Amino acid sequence: MQIGLIRKYGYQAEVHRVETKDGYLLGVHRIPRPGAQPVLMVHGLGDSSATWVLSGPCCGLAYLLSERGYDVWLMNIRGNRYSRRHRRYVPLMRQFWDFSFHENGIYDIPATIDYILSRSGPHKQVHYVGHSQGTSAVFALGAERPEYMKKIKLLQALAPVAYFRNLRTPVTDFVKPYARTLINLVRLFGINEIPPEREVWNRLYYQLCSFAFRNTCKYVIMLLVGMDSPQYNETLTPVLFSHYLAGSSLKALEHYRQLLETGGFYKFDYQNPSANLRRYGRRTPPEYKVENINCKVALYYSRNDLLTSYKDVQDLRKKLPNVVHDELLAYSQFSHLDFLIAIDAKKLLYDSMFRVMEQVDKGEL
After folding, report:
1. Which entry of 132, 248, 309, 352 is annotated as an active-site residue?
2. pLDDT tens, position by position, 126-141
3. 305 labelled catalytic
4. Which of 2-6, 93-97, 200-204, 213-217 has the lowest mean pLDDT?
5. b or e along 327-338 (b: 16 or more beta carbons within 10 Å of the residue's beta carbon)?
6. Residue 200: pLDDT above 90?
7. What are the residue boundaries of the structural domains of the chain, listed by start?
8. Strand pairing report for 71-75 and 24-31
9. What pTM does this model have?
């Protein structure tokens, strides 16, 4: 259990339950520093709050922020292994999985921000750190509910995901022509969760990646997110596989498939003009108005990220009205996963993040 990872190293840890407006009960983990400036950390697709602590106290961003005096809150989006409860639905029901990063942004993040601020004494804003889908979700929130940007002191986006106009990789080029057919086929079998959450799978991944297929597991990871052997801690391979496949919705994958196909940052397309007309007042889904994201934003991205193109992040940067820091990482091999577990992540990335946070906290940015 993720909370055990934190306590293992002598840190205090708390489990909180946050209810969203549409009835989901989210598991939120905390490394508490009562009265300190709160930081909300939001993981990517198929991931969980464990991603911020897997590297241990030396390298895990959650620990490093706690050591710098922040009150650290680790969110789990609806549907992952720590957030599988709802007031009306259960995971066996299709309705439970009717969400993508849009609902994560419109419901999960604001509910968690409000919960944190109600327990943060004099603090009226949170620092926000998101990785991958954790950036897509907060961009959707800012575009649709810009009033919540007043509650974010600084939005730090790691490997930001919004546009896909320039993403060209062997994996995306191979998957793109077949993605729609594969997703529809999975849906025909009544599968709404990807991958199905079962404890036996977690144990199997851990065992396989610990021994016989360790190198294969490593290769699969790097094939998907980018090759960077010098920064990859091989001892984390079985732990990554046992924690990473934490569950998400088929609809979330479908939403990203649509973005990959169109290149733009659009709301979910229901593939039916009448359905779109009922929801959006138009036959095609509208584009998110990222110009509404007017809080302070810091962007961190890399050339070797196979899940988002640095050119697309730079296009996003031109549309955001209040970017206070824009960093294309100097280390050329930095990959999508390196934002979380690179051996030298502190030197290559986190120290820069800490400087920006300190400047914002002091009112210098």
Report:
1. 132
2. 999 999 999 999 999 9
3. yes
4. 200-204
5. eebebebbbbbb
6. no
7. 2-361
8. antiparallel
9. 0.91
HSE, CB side, 13 Å, CA atoms: give it for residue 23. 10
Give the C-alpha separation, 318 to 291, whole Å: 9
SS3 assignment, position 72:
strand
Conformational region of residue 329, where left means phi above 0, alpha means psi within -120 to 50, and beta covers everything else: beta
Q: Is 123 a catalytic residue?
A: no
Length of the chain: 365
Q: Is the peptide bond before 195 cis (omega within 30 degrees of 0)?
A: yes
Do 105 and 137 touch, CB atoms closer than 8 A? Answer: yes
Catalytic residue among 305, 309, 338, 352: 305
C-beta separation of 28 from 78 below 8 A: no
Q: In the annotation, is 114 catalytic?
A: no
Q: Which residue in 43, 255, 325, 336 is the catalytic one?
A: 336
Please check whether residue 319 is in contact with residue 143, taking contact to mean a CB–CB distance below 8 angstroms: no
CATH H superfamily, domain 2-361: Alpha/Beta hydrolase fold, catalytic domain (3.40.50.1820)
